[in-house]
Amino acid sequence: MAAATRSCRPWGSLLGLIWLVSAAAASWDLTSLRCNFGSFCECDFRPDLQGLECDLAQHLAGQHLARSLVVKALKAFLQDPAPTKPLVLSLHGWTGTGKSYVSSLLAQYLFRDGLRSPHVHHFSPVIHFPHPSHMERYKKDLKSWVQGNLTVCSRSLFLFDEMDKLAPGLIEVLRPFLGSSWVVYGTNYRKAIFIFISNTGGEQINQVVLEAWRSRREREEIGLQELGPVISQAVLDNPHHGFWRSGIMEEHLLDVLVPFLPLQRHHVRHCVLNELAQLGLEPRDEVVQAVLDSTTFFPEDEQLFSSNGCKTVASRIAFFL
Domain of life of the organism in this record (predicted)? Predict the structure, then answer.
C-alpha cells in the first residue's frame, strides 16, 4: 500500500500542537477583524467543500458514517442562503478516532485563515472553565463572548471540546442561540456553526460495532438509526456531560449526532502511512509493523479495536524511525 500524499490542500501535521495552540489563542481582537458590516458580513469565511471531501476521503480512516453525515449536513446548511437556525453538530466516539481532526479540517476548509481565523473559537473545559466555583461568571462570559462575536461576524465557528468534562448547566446559556428564532439579543446568529465533541457514547458505539463484526455484518452497514439512540441515551445518563438534563437535548437542538467508530488494525496502518507521508518519508514496512506491534487492541479475546485509535501514531513513529 503506497503512502497517501496530501493533494487536497496544504496542511500541517495531524492536529497535535497546532490544535492546542489554537485553543489557547482563542481571543477576540477587534483590530484583526477584516469586515465592517456587522452581523451581515462573511469575514474570512471561504468554504471549500471539494477540498474538505477530498481530505476526509484520503485521510480520515475508518469513518464512513461520520464523513457522510458531516459533509451532507454542511452542504445542506451552506446551500441555504437564509437558514432558520445555526448548524449544530455533536461528535461522539472513542479516543483517537478522528473527532478533533474532523473539527480542525472544518475550520481549515471553511475559513481562509483556518484555525488562526478570529472567527473560529475553540473552548476547552480545562483551559477556559477550570473552576466549578466560578460557574456563574463563566456563564455570563460565555454568553457575552458568543453574542459579541456573532454581532461582529455571523459566519463564526464555535468548537466545544471534551463535553464530557464540562460542568452541566454552563452550556445552557447557548440554548437561545441554537434554536430557530430569527434574532437573539439583537444578534443575527443563524449562519453560525456549533460543534460539540465528547467521548460519551464511545463504549456504546464500540459495542454495536463489535456485535456487527461478530455477526459478520459489514462495517459500512452500520447506520445512524442504529447508533443515534444509544448515543443519546449515553449522554442523558451521564451526569458529568455538559448536556446532562439540558434543554438543548430536550428541545432537539442538535442537528446531527455524528458517531465515530472504533479503529481496527488496518485503519491504524492507514494512519501510520499518512503520517509518514506528512513527514515526507517513504513507507517503511519495519516502521509500520513496529507501530502496529506497539499498539494495544481490545477486547482481550478478539484484539479488534485500537485502544487509542490513531492518537499516538505520530509519537510512536518518531520513536521507531
Answer: Eukaryota
